[in-house]
């Protein structure tokens, strides 16, 4: 068992290490856009013998910390995947509390007034209360000049691509363009203009917690040239030092952008 004195020493050494890590990050090597797949909330709760809702609450609290860390190093855009389209099939006794936790988290981010909130996902699949919370957050923060925070709720990469193609077809049809003409001229830029993140830079770095090394459908189109960082920590246990290590790992890589 660790004594209080040893714990204080360990905490002090960790703080020194974090500061050293932070100073080592060159401003021109900071990712402009970070995407994060928050994973491990349920395992975190179950490992302590608690209801999964405790894990979701702890995970929601971690999001605010994470955004402050990103803001501190100069990140311009963050995309946080809070709920996938697959998650919507979870049992009601888990999904309904999770949706309330997400609504509260979004309201709290809005109240901070430091970041622009942009919903990313199929809002039509969400309960009306959740969708309205996300729309209200976007409206309330639309004039904020700080970091842009994409809140991915009811998000799935395949659904996003399907929605983008559907939007493109409807737009072209409204202009009297035939399907044959569209097939001749459509390119990647046409589709990109109809994504949920249209007009935004693609993520430079995608972080996933809990040891899972897969995207699971996160930003399938946008992450084609992204760098990835997989962390063993469950999301509620994700620390500032873990974040700094992820950014350092990104800064040390030679990006080739597919060449």
From TrEMBL:
Substrate binds at residues 40-44, 56, 84-86, 90, 208. Binds 2 magnesium ions per subunit. Mg(2+) binds at residues 39, 227. One of its GO terms (molecular function) is transferase activity. SUPFAM superfamilies: Undecaprenyl diphosphate synthase. The keyword Transferase applies. The keyword Metal-binding applies. PANTHER family: DEHYDRODOLICHYL DIPHOSPHATE SYNTHASE COMPLEX SUBUNIT DHDDS, DEHYDRODOLICHYL DIPHOSPHATE SYNTHASE FAMILY MEMBER. HAMAP family: ISPT (MF_01139). This is Isoprenyl transferase. It comes from Kribbella yunnanensis.
């Amino acid at each position: 068992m660790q004594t209080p004195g040893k714990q204080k020493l360990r905490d002090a050494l960790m703080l020194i290490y974090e500061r050293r890590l932070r100073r080592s990050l060159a401003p021109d090597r900071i990712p402009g856009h970070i995407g994060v797949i928050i994973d491990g909330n349920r395992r975190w709760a179950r490992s302590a013998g608690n209801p999964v809702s405790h894990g979701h609450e702890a995970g929601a609290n971690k999001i605010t910390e994470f955004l402050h860390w990103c803001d501190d190093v100069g990140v311009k855009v963050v995309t946080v995947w809070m709920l996938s389209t697959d998650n919507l099939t979870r049992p009601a006794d888990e999904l309904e509390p999770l949706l309330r936790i997400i609504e509260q988290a979004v309201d709290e981010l809005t109240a901070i007034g430091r970041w622009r909130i942009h919903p990313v996902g199929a809002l039509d699949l969400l309960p009306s209360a959740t969708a309205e919370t996300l729309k209200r957050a976007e409206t309330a923060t639309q004039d904020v000049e700080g970091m842009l925070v994409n809140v991915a709720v009811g998000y799935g990469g395949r659904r996003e691509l399907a929605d983008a193609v559907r939007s493109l077809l409807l737009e072209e049809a409204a202009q009297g363009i035939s399907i044959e003409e569209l097939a001749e001229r459509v390119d990647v830029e046409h589709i990109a203009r109809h994504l949920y993140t249209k007009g935004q830079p693609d993520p430079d770095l995608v972080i996933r917690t809990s040891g899972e090394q897969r995207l699971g459908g996160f930003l399938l189109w946008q992450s084609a040239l992204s760098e990835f960082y997989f962390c063993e920590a469950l999301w509620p246990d994700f620390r500032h030092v873990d974040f700094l290590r992820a950014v350092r790992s990104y800064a040390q890589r030679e990006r080739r952008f597919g060449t």
